[in-house]
Amino acid sequence: MFFARRRLAVAASVLALAAGMPAVAIAQPAAPGVAAAPTQRAVAFAVQPGAAEGTLILPLRSEADLDALTGLAEIDAVRRALGSAAFRYGARQSLSLRGIGAWDRILILGLGSEAGPADVQWSGAVAGRAVMSDKGPATVMAPALSAEQAAGLATGMGIGHYRSNLHQASARSAEAPGGLTIVTPQAQAAEAAYRARGAGLVEAMTWTRDISNEPANIVYPEVFVERARAAFRDLPGVTIEVLDVPAMQRLGMGVLLGAGRGSARPPRLLVVRYQGRGAPDGGPIALVGKGITFDTGGISIKPGAGMGNMKMDMSGAASVVGATLALAKSGAPVNVVAVAALVENMPDGGAIRPSDVLTAMNGKTVEIISTDAEGRLVLSDALVWTERNLNPAAVVDVATLTGAVGGALGDDYAGLFSRHDALADQLTAASAATGEGLWRLPLHPSYAQDTSSTIADIKNSGAGGAGAGSGAWFIGEFLSRDIPWAHLDIANMAYGGPNDWKPDGSAGFSVRLLEQFVRDWTPIEKGAADGGR
User: Fold this and answer.
1) Which CATH number fits domain 206-519: 3.40.50.2000, 3.40.718.10, 3.40.630.10, 3.40.190.10?
2) Rounded CA gap, 201 and 330, in Å?
3) What are 18-23's contacts with CB under 8 Å, separation 24+?
4) Nearest one of 528, 408, 390 to 471, comparing CA atoms
5) Dihedral sign, CA of 233, 239, 243, 247?
6) Measured distance CA(341)–CA(343) in Å, rounded
7) How far apart are CA 321 and CA 229, in angstroms?
8) Bridge partner residues of 338 (DSSP)
9) What DSSP character marks residue 341?
10) How far is Cα 299 from Cα 309, in angstroms, rounded to an integer?
11) Has this prediction a pTM greater than 0.90?
12) Any residues with CB less than 8 A from the CB of 477 and at least 6 apart, and which?
């Protein structure tokens, strides 16, 4: 009976489309949400350690840091173990020792002799992942670290302690882990630094990874909006606006709506504004994210292998909202707006086809070459809306856009495209500060020919060659040249297998980078593009 109703509804959708009317959205049952047990350790700071219990973590930049551990009864045994293992104290290097003193385990954590903030945070993530199975309390003795380094280590441990087993029964019944105590002579300053920034960053990374890792029958455009509302609830300086299908139809957002036309899940445009106390005057920084909650490729359907990963094709939207969440939770004095273009791309009788022509909000017409090049469609209307409604100081869009960027950069860097050198420089600086790699790629004028159409103003897929570059060029055609704009193609960095930073699934890539970029923002005078080749 369900399939009979489905066929009738599809027929009604096709007839409605032919008449220029909106298609009927067909409700689909969603799997019930399940709540996993708490996985984060409660974090405290202290000047002196408590009783030897659970796991002890010793972060060390070099052998000299051992001299500061004067109160550790097991220091001689630790020294012998480090010498025997030829431990080199490099960043993210670790050594696990058991059976020493009263501790269940002593984890030696290398930071590197020239440890910067990114090294400390990443090393903290290594420790967080290493002690995930340790249910008892954990103590970090860090007498040689600065307050900022101790706070960064705690932040990294929270990020590393993330679990992606959202729907496992064992996760729901598991006991919460013991607390984490950071022991440092500068406990008060370290705690202040952590509460002011690190704690919010951990929460935002967790939110971003959770929503990216959820299957598409749990999270689709409407649910993404609901979860964002819940995350930002009661935070000062935040306002949320949501455009539904009728609102976008009135605005003429034909390409964004076209990308979602084959799905029973209606699109949404989510706008989260945050303006902190003390934020500078002027327009906001706009972070615009591609939010394809599931991407089959549409009529240009993808191969079956790996298609399940396309639940994470909304990672760009998750990251821009997550970065804004981190800033809002820490009360940062910034003016930022996250715009999430949320669509599910499915094949259906009402879906767009190759050779269709759609009209964007600014009147520009788009010839569809591939319905699997849908991310640039949703971003184009989102960028037009952003320019017309926000008067942004700068725009950065983030998208899992192309497989080609991985062919160029592997899994070490996301692609950075920009026509504005000053903006690209600021993003590159944020990349260096956080360790989230960006590599600038060209926006060559030849890409205009690659995306030219004989029937419309532009086509949504290039004629071969620079796939990542032609995709970026297409997106840039929907924003005025005088607005500082950059495009981050994170398709090769957003998700993947487990490593010392994350479990299988979402990496939450670009949350920390964008948070740093917005905090460090230096205004750029609007004007003609000055770079890009």
Assistant:
1) 3.40.630.10
2) 8
3) 22/245, 22/246, 22/249, 23/261, 23/350
4) 408
5) positive
6) 7
7) 11
8) 272, 287
9) E
10) 18
11) yes
12) 364, 380, 451, 458
- 3 state SS for 143-186: CCCCHHHHHHHHHHHHHHCCCCCCCCHHHHHCCCCCCEEEECCC
Q: How far is CA 19 from CA 9, 22, 261, 371, 474, in A?
A: 15, 9, 14, 22, 30
- Looking at CATH, the fold of the domain delimited by 43-165+176-187 is given as Leucine Aminopeptidase, subunit E; domain 1 (3.40.220)
Find where tokens 């959202």 sit. 166
Q: What is the pLDDT of residue 470?
A: 96
pLDDT in tens, 396-419: 999 999 999 999 999 999 999 999
The pLDDT of residue 530:
82
- Cβ neighbours of residue 271 under 8 Å, at least 6 residues apart? 240, 241, 242, 243, 337, 338, 339, 340
Q: In the numeric block, which tokens belong to residue 388?
A: 């017309």
Q: What percent of the chain has pLDDT over 70?
A: 92
Is the separation of the CB atoms in 317 and 207 below 8 Å?
Answer: no
CA-to-CA distance for 412 and 79, rounded, in angstroms?
A: 35
**Predicted pLDDT at 11:** 40
- Out of 135, 195, 302, 526, pick the active-site residue: 302
Residue spans of the domains in the chain: they are: 43-165+176-187, 206-519
Measured between alpha carbons, how far apart are the two ends of the chain, in Å? 57
Q: What pLDDT, on the 0 to 100 scale, is given for residue 249?
A: 98
Q: Do 343 and 260 touch, CB atoms closer than 8 A? A: yes
Residue with tokens 């292998």, as numbered in its chain: 305
Q: Where are the alpha helices (DSSP H) in 275-418?
A: 315-329, 375-390, 404-409
Dihedral of the CA atoms 165, 167, 173, 174 (nearest 10)? 10
* 376 classed as catalytic: yes
What is the rounded (10 degree) CA torsion for 297, 302, 305, 310? -10
> What pLDDT shows up at residue 37?
53
Positions in the chain short of pLDDT 50: 1-34
Q: Is 132 exposed, middle or buried (0-12, 13-18, 19+ CB in 10 A)?
A: middle
Sorted by sequence, the CB contacts under 8 Å of residue 363 that are 6+ apart come out as 252
Beta bridge partners of 289: 340, 398
**Which residue out of 61, 376, 419, 502 is catalytically annotated?**
376
User: What number of residues does the chain have?
Assistant: 533
Do domains 43-165+176-187 and 206-519 share one topology? The answer is: no
Q: DSSP alpha helices (H): ranges in 187-220?
A: 187-193, 199-213
| Whether the Cβ atoms of residue 182 and residue 45 lie closer than 8 Å to each other | yes
